[in-house]
Amino acid sequence: MPGHPIATGRYPGGQPRDGDLVAMPGRARYLVLAGATASAGSSLAAAPLSRILWLLGGLVCAAPMLARMARQRAAIAPAWRLVGAGLAVRLASDLACMIEDLTHQGDVPLPSWDDEVGYLLSYALLAAGLIGAAGGRARTALLDASIVAAGVAIIDWMALVHPFLHHHAIGQLALGHALMYPICDLVLFAAAVRVLFTGAVRNRANLLVLAAVGLLLAANTISFAHAAHGGHRSVALLDNALWLCSYIAFGLAGLHPRLFGERHAEPDEPRGAVSTRRILLFGAATLLGPTATVIRLARAHGALAPGEWRHLVVPAILTGLLSVLLVARLGGLARLAQRRLAELDEHGRRLSVALLERESLEHQLRHGALHDPVTGLANRALLTQRMEWALARPDARHRHALLLLDVDRFTDVNDAHGIGFGDEALIALAYRLRTLAAPGDTLARIGGDEFALFVEHGTGDPAQAREQAEQLAELLRAEVKAPLKVGGRVVHLSCSIGLVHIDGHDPREAMADAELALRAAKRGGRDRVSRYKAELRIAREAFTRISAGLRHAVERGELAVHYQPVVELPSGRVVAVEALLRWTPASGPVPPDEFIPVAEETGLILPIGAWVLERACRDARACRDARAWYERHGTSVTVNVSVRQLAEPGFADEVLAVLECTGLPADALVLEITESVFAGDADALPVALDRLRGHGIRIAIDDFGTGYSSLSYLHQLPVDILKIDRSFVPAEPGGDHSFTLAVLQLGSSRSLPAIAEGIETAEQAELLHALGCRLAQGYHFAKPGPAAQVEAAFARLNPAPAG
Fold first, then answer.
1. What are the TM regions of this chain, as residue ranges (predicted)?
2. Least C-beta-crowded within 10 Å: which of 165, 191, 406, 482?
3. Is the pLDDT of residue 531 over 50?
């Protein structure tokens, strides 16, 4: 019901989304109710009351929007504040229009001040606000909105403007004034569509503002159509109701929980892209011009009155403009496609580079997982794979061989020159070994200084293949022994090699057999090749069985200490006893020469040796209230000590603690060690032995003459007793006794008593006595036995003192 004589517009480009009104506060219901009441009252009442009720309803409905702008002005974007200002100016124009209409009693002069100033200013403010609300980056949205507006402009001309010009004869000034409103509506429509195509509509309050603008344009369109074609009162009531609904939408935007003007997201489509809905809209806009022209011609039945063709010029111009806009839009899409194609090409290039880098990295990872990082040789995993592939071929395993090579005492190289030099030595050694391996063989580093060579002999004769593998093993050993130049130094190395001719399918069994052969080469003195034999596996199984049994032998009570007397040859008296360990599991007794080496190698000799020492001291001492062997007969107890025990830092403390616990005097204990222990570190042992000797404990060298004995050792080491090995004890009077005599004379010169072991006959005892040996032990005097049997030997050989 605004007072300007002509207003034109269009239907809104979209309706509010579902749920917008449901989410509004409860006050919105009263706002809608007020608007509906005002609309009903204005339609039923007579003028001028209807005009007053309508304007009051509009003011009430738009009041929340204006009030919110006043309260939250700083929080609202400037562009949206222009939209609110446009609303306020329009309401003021409606009020001025009503006053002029009442003043002139319906005969309002044209143009009036509210038309020229009020409504046109409101259009300018609304359009400027919507243009600013879309943002400066929405150039694509502007082009799209122009396309849609051009299509609508054709409809406006054909359906509204042209009929208006055809039926109304008015002056040039009034005509220009009348056409100003449809042009403003078209600009406002384009600005609203542009905002609709941007992310501003993600805010429901913004969408309500756009809906209000759409209702305003729809009311203007109906009003213009009414003025162009004439109409009934129902048409006037409809545009009045739509104007009032526009104010209601503005008011709902003011009541919305969110503040209108906020931008929360960008459009769904990438910048410059076109959605399916927008494409359909473009298509519809493009067809509007030709469709309207065809309809116009159809109405004229193919014949136009003179001068009518000039009325088709404007649709033609608009259609041409629409085509130009569409071409520009398509050009933009083409440029976008080219950029995307260039981006895809660049992405593809980067992806190709990334794939190549990934492939290279995967290759490096695979190589690192299957190769030794120091020498570059295969590692154990790759060696196992190659063996599995080769052994999986039928009848091929009998022609293959596996060699395990361990560098002897390579830790000495690392200790002398550092680990870095040791790695360089391994690299140089690996290069040498690689020159001896055939192209089909696999050379691997499987440990710190341990290498493996898997030899494949194809389809040759198995016997010939075995011979070639053994020759290759000797070549490898000789190659390692050759002087190795590393940097500015020359290193001399040797190696032990275990060789196995593969007869099975399992690489793990072959590796285990080769390790047994390598261990045999090390035990044999190193720097040699040892071939796998079935006896090695049998011995290893026995080793495993014995070590498993020894772990629980003490707690099961399977260990016992037997004693063998040491006799003074001139008098026949027992002057000492040697403690000898015996093991009798449930399966039967195990000889000491079988389980003692196992205990040494596994380290079980440490707890077992500690148990033997304490047991022997307790048996020798008996108890504190009874007369022990030492107190009754002056005898001492000799306990064998292993290399592993002597290497323990707290060994001396452990021995002294046992003596204190059992109460055995220190001079009643003799620790018996083999002379081979001095070969490893002859300088470190005297410290511990000197400390024990300082407390009165004596040290005996067992099996003297069989290993590393020399005058220098006897001079350097704290030794109290020599024990002559049974292999040097004369068996009969007519034999060669020079070595035995030399040992006895050596001991006498150093004031070291000598004990001859393994005396079996009286003749041997007499001969040793004649050579000057005073002490002996053996089966001739007594066999080893438990403590009770030793008591019997004391009773027989050491008569009780008189009195």
1. 117-134, 141-159, 179-197, 209-229, 279-297, 309-330
2. 482
3. yes
